[in-house]
């Protein structure tokens, strides 16, 4: 049932630049041990807004006022900064979530916005989930058969129903029970009346970090950039397969799952995470810059200007320019006043596409051989339009350099990807793509080059047991996508 | 958990006139077999708005678009008349609900607005409930213990969870299962993908009627006035303990409950129902007028003017004037532009009370002996203020005549009543009340007189087996209010 | 220029009952000498809401914060009761205005909402005007020619521009200058930084009364009912052609115009004013009841039930029933939850018409000979629909009795009337109207009967010099409607 | 009078980064000869949004529907992209305006949002003004004395009143009359029913360019970047002192003013204009990059990293890095989800300041000697906070390099500047500023260096007759700021 408590948030998303990217679905954040914890969560979610712009939610707990919740469509800064709303979220313990809607759900509903809450006989619990449960359809069928009533279309709701049905007598134990039934990728932040809880799936596909505030306050966050905004100290990453239960200034570490080799999402380095976050002890900015350096080594070309496709291509372009010695310049200017979508737009706005967001710096481009550095090519629609704008402005040559390998497979672990057929690299060779885009040259970084740039190893990818999840490039899925296979998705064959 | 998806609808309800009335909690309406069924439901709910002004909801089903739902705070006419909203509710089958918030729930939440929906393995179902479940607390505890997750604070949600856990293979049978577990008063309208269902509890405390449209369309409604607005023909009342399952132009009648003597709420005649509705073959207006006639016989007084307290006292005042021969006149004028509450009112508005809604027709009142006819006295706060206004305007005498017996006991069957201690008649004798109100005389209709007026019998009330539920007057509760007794409510003792 | 700062308030007004009435355009209210004067104005405007439901505005003055203004579409109670808005209107001096949009202006604009404000070299002034300026077009042309820039399409704006151009050195004197140029009907409430000012045109077509609060507070109001709500004492009516300048607890009376015989609007008695207001020392309710008495004498008929068309026909119906001895009963029930219009309604709502607001009390009507008492017949569209509903309910006969003479001429003095061709009585005889409406009999009160009922004289109308403006009935316009004649309106000829 | 038709848009502006910049007040745009001209204006205003984010307005003219106007607070993209609003602005001729509120006006009012409209005897006209009228106070006093009623607190409204009072028989001639009375800086775009008009003041302080669409369509815009977005061809700049009257595909050029040496605002090059605009035949990006080059020559320093303060310092930082050979890197990351202000923010949000928008890329900064390149220092508050963030992140040294000379004087020509006392450079020497900011070195580009970078001359500034208006740096005001002098502002003395 689609409960249209709000007008459909996005009649359509024609924002061509962002639409032609992969999208992280979520960011999670939780804090305890501070007055007005919800305010800290709001700031943390603001810093994680790049992980999900559609909607956000916060749940807090206060001994007198109980659990309170607020969920809103739109940016954190437009909702969760208002005193009148934040006053309704009292307490020293709170968690929150920002989300990007998945391709599957048409017509967003506030019911689908996390955190999800359940009242159990021993008290309430709220959860916020980043990732994707690959056996959610089967779990949902089973739970409905046994009498559970689902309120949303979200895969994440399975977790709270599994918890409700667990026979364990305390909530963290129920959560262990529940998550052992769940397959796929999950970084979960949860709360009870007294505890802040964080868990990562056994492969550690999605990130989750622990931070510390003064006194006994602790923080859980998808990325370190959200620790900076509230002045929290970065303690460490939650480990793959680890559950931390935080209460009274103590952090208890549990290991509910069988040990496995970790498979962190390599695309977090390429695009999802913010450049000022630290992953694996290393700045994401520096990794991206290094990708540019590798790319300049792997695919050099004679040219006059290295120009980033703003803003995500910028660090790699800086690295490319530095390594190649070709001058760096802002050949494309981004309009800072663009949000993500329009409500009920005019026909004309609908047809504007990229031009609403990007303009070419014609005087700089004219007559030059230009290297455009972008983070990835998904459908290729935006790349074509950018190329046209650059040529219209009088560029002599256009060379694309892409800071990731060809994206040829969909992600089933919490990233919104088009169907395989829509991915340019799934149906074309590199040369066909070059022709399709109509550029003078097109080069992607190699998978080994990417592994080198992220610091995995000097040799690159360990093909026997890859150090990262790179299914979107390699088609090798570390967890079988059960629901999708049931729906007809074909795994890579030995021949491919 | 209070999910504040909307600003608290009613920071407080200081609308003194209405606040000093008993309030029906709900109206229900359903229709099938017509194009755009939701539009019919909207009209029906508009006609039932007097049964619940806080919020309303509609669920519809369309073979292609599935179940859709919209729930809103505020009047039906302000929400469910807009084309843009109604377009989201397609289909030939729809049900709806208007609600008045109960005293217990502070801070209304859209989650509490019905209809409630559940997805079962054999398909979805939606229910709308008028009444109150007297063992809801116990049921909720049991359901939570077994893993159900409640989404609202409403007693009615128990029904859908009981249905979800039933082992029956079709939805009407699951509904029978569920309602056999439920105690109290319920008139329920429900729907599946193909069926429109109506049920009344074995005592038939709350009303529910069946209507017919052209072709194969059928209607279920709390009152007949909502049939008139859509041009439906009144067929008959659903009988106490009856379930009707309507599909394909057929009305199947079932009897899921053990037979019992019916106990229709007598206050529906006095105040809740609209005067143009028909109950038991008789116009509510005519019944009220007849109450006035009885009252004039039981409690005559010499006076110059019979004046209704608008608008609910009007029919009884007309009857009183007619029987007594004393001229009828509008001594109190009601401002038509008053809604129920104010958002964030100024101090001054907060203190205005009755004067915002009522003004005395001073020229008519001056020097006269005035009989004021009102439907009931609950707390007595408004009656005192009206008396003061009448005296300020120069009335020579003020005589109150009340069209119901003293309201001395709370209702637990779906009516919002103050705690017993707040009911004037629970703590004072009639003479004490007269003194408290400061009027020259105060008379209530007798219980027998009321029974005569509603046409129960010439003799009045059958005290051995009363023909109606009159617990609010008599303290004799036809269903034991189990949850309330657990919370400390004391039943009437033999001594009382 | 139509500055659409708000969505068009009324895409169309299909509310059939109200649409087939004449509409007063405005109510005005002002107060000084009290803390938070704007709160008093809000209450006064709420009591005057029946004079204009489209929009309202308040201007206040505070020595430190200067002049402040707020103008809003919608009911007073939905806007001017909020603390957050009222805090922006500080000071001890304030005026306000409610308006009904005139037929001519399509697409309401907030710019047209009064009070209007002008900054002069000696300080600011605000004005609120009830009535209509019959030479506004000519004045506007002249003012534009001389360099004035109009901000609204309102005739009332001429007044403030004439004041701006006056060479007088104080504002009341400028106002005298301005109003001497103006023709037509005007009751104006105005304010400067220190003075509250009230004026009525020489004929006194529109009402304006003076009230007194405790201490030195004074009130100006369109009607006395608005004095009651704030507890002000009624002092007297402002006289035709009088200007009062109130300051420091003193009321100075001026006479800026040449004396003329007064021509108060007789329709204020019939329909516009609230029944609890006092006009000419007499309750409007009592006058209307007396119209019913006269009507019963002039046009008796054998019947079983006297039934008002609610709510405006009620007092006359009470009088008719009393005089005729035929029982009074509520055969038509009004839905209390109807506002005036709908935003973007569904097709179905659009076609509902009268049934959204009125329902027949079928049990009461069936088999009866019914006398329907209504205040007036304008287009006749609603009367026809009501007759149909009554016959559908099984009435044996339907007799219309109308509490005013046939409305055959448009009003040009501040009342929204259809073009002459649309007035039923302009094109049909009484018998033709009866046939058109399809009723058993149709009778209007005579002009003399109406004059008797309002207490003008036992003989009725003084045809040589009528005691009232009755142009809508008689076609005798006390002020020549210059703009309308220029636009082609034909005055009554000697032959008519 | 402050007409609070909307809640005060900006209870306060604590957005520390932007608050410590100078702000352009306005952008103007107009187009004719295209269907749905208002849509083109919306796109143009979106591209000019950096010139004013508070509010925007559009006026269009259609032969049948007349002049229509819409004015809104907030971003163009949130208002003027909606089909339902744009449909209310039909026609082939339209102009628009975006505005930044001036420091002086507290409590923004929709009345102050341009374009302004006036109805004259020969038809209506609308104007949109970028700049500031330095004798507006005197003009307003005179106009009020003569009977004009002002509707806004804007200086620009004088122009339309002067036009209304002109005795000329056509509107362009009235506009010439009006503008000859006006002193200061003005780039005006205006429209009548048939003509699109553009004017620049004799000194040409603010920019205005002419563009051409296919067929007979013409465009006027503050900057060329807004031509790009609608695919218009850049024709030429409107010349200082020139008026163009565009109609029927013809551009007529007039010279209403006495010739003077031009004084274009040099700060447009430094900060106001978008980097992809062309001024004087040269890309603004290239000029800024060149400023960085000059700065590296004038003020070299040994360091490890050149880091821009995003985003305005970026081009100069690229130039500095290139010239100095020191690596360029993004040491500060900007949160893309920040708007300008918050409505009713929590205490915590209020105190966050720069951290809501900027975060340090700690891994890149740690241990490095960092050169921070920013465009200007106004109050210095943000510079101090950024320095602290950089040091907290472990930078070894911090060197500020500023892409403009010290800002020591307020602008009176349409830029929002703090009072002189608040400008850091007005009260401190360069060394005092360095100490105040607490950095290792602080250097501003020289005035001559800036003139070289903008391409004025190899020698730099012509001190006898400067090629630009540089009053904010030099204190030499090309037009006497009459109103400000009356209010007590002291011009630079010979001694200074």
From TrEMBL, chains A, B, C, D:
Lineage of the species this protein comes from: Bacteria, Pseudomonadati, Pseudomonadota, Alphaproteobacteria, Rhodobacterales
CDD domains: GPATase_N (cd00715), PRTases_typeI (cd06223)
Keyword Iron annotated: yes
Keyword terms of this UniProt record: 4Fe-4S, Glutamine amidotransferase, Glycosyltransferase, Iron, Iron-sulfur, Magnesium, Metal-binding, Purine biosynthesis, Transferase
UniProt: [4Fe-4S] cluster binding residues: 265, 411, 469, 472
SUPFAM superfamilies: N-terminal nucleophile aminohydrolases (Ntn hydrolases), PRTase-like
NCBIfam families: purF
Essential cofactor(s): Mg(2+); [4Fe-4S] cluster
Record organism: Alloyangia pacifica
Function, as annotated: Catalyzes the formation of phosphoribosylamine from phosphoribosylpyrophosphate (PRPP) and glutamine.
Presence of keyword Metal-binding: yes
Full protein name: Amidophosphoribosyltransferase
Cofactor note: Binds 1 Mg(2+) ion per subunit. Binds 1 [4Fe-4S] cluster per subunit.
Any one Gene Ontology BP term: purine nucleobase biosynthetic process
Annotated metabolic or biological route of this protein: Purine metabolism; IMP biosynthesis via de novo pathway; N(1)-(5-phospho-D-ribosyl)glycinamide from 5-phospho-alpha-D-ribose 1-diphosphate: step 1/2
Catalytic activity: 5-phospho-beta-D-ribosylamine + L-glutamate + diphosphate = 5-phospho-alpha-D-ribose 1-diphosphate + L-glutamine + H2O
Gene Ontology MF, one: magnesium ion binding
């Amino acid at each position: 049932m689609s409960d249209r408590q709000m007008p459909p948030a996005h009649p359509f998303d024609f924002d061509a630049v962002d639409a032609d990217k992969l999208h992280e679905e979520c960011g999670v954040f939780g804090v305890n041990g501070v007055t007005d914890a919800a305010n800290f969560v709001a700031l943390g979610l603001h810093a994680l807004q790049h992980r999900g712009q559609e909607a956000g939610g916060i749940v807090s707990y206060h001994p007198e006022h109980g659990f309170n919740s607020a969920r809103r469509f739109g940016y954190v800064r437009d909702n969760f900064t208002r005193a009148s709303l934040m006053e309704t979220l009292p307490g020293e313990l709170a968690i929150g979530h920002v989300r990007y809607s998945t391709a599957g759900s048409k017509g967003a509903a506030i019911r689908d916005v996390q955190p999800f809450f359940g009242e159990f006989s021993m008290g309430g619990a709220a959860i916020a989930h980043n990732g994707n449960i690959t056996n959610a359809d089967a779990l949902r069928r089973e739970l409905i058969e046994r009498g559970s009533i689902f309120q949303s279309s979200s895969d994440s709701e399975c977790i709270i129903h599994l918890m409700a049905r667990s026979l364990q007598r305390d909530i963290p134990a129920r959560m262990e029970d529940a998550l052992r039934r769940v397959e796929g990728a999950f970084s979960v932040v949860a709360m009870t009346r007294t505890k802040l809880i964080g868990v990562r799936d056994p492969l550690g596909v999605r990130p989750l970090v622990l931070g510390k505030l003064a006194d006994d306050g602790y923080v859980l966050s998808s990325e370190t950039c959200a620790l900076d905004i509230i002045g929290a100290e970065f303690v460490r990453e939650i480990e793959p397969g680890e559950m931390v239960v935080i209460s009274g200034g103590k952090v208890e570490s549990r290991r509910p799952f069988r040990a496995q080799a970790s498979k962190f999402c390599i695309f977090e380095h390429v695009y999802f995470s913010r450049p000022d976050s630290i992953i694996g002890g290393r700045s994401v900015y520096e990794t991206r810059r290094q990708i540019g350096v590798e790319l300049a080594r792997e695919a050099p070309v004679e040219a006059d200007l290295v120009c980033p496709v703003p803003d995500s291509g910028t660090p790699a372009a800086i690295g490319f320019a530095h390594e190649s010695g070709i001058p760096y310049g802002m050949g494309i200017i981004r309009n800072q006043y663009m949000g993500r979508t329009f409500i009920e737009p005019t026909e004309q706005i609908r047809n504007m596409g990229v031009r609403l967001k990007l303009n070419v710096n014609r005087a700089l481009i004219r007559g030059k051989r230009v290297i455009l550095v972008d983070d990835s090519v998904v459908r290729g629609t935006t790349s074509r339009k950018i190329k046209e704008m650059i040529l219209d402005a009088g560029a002599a040559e256009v060379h694309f350099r892409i800071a990731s390998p060809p994206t040829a497979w969909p992600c089933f672990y919490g990233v919104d990807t088009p169907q395989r057929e829509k991915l340019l690299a799934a149906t074309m060779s590199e040369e066909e793509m070059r022709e399709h885009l109509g550029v003078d040259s097109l080069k992607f970084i190699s998978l080994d080059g990417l592994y080198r740039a992220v610091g995995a190893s000097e040799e690159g990818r360990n093909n026997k047991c890859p150090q990262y999840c790179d299914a979107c490039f390699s088609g090798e899925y570390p967890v079988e996508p059960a629901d999708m296979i049931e729906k007809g998705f074909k795994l890579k064959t030995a021949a491919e």
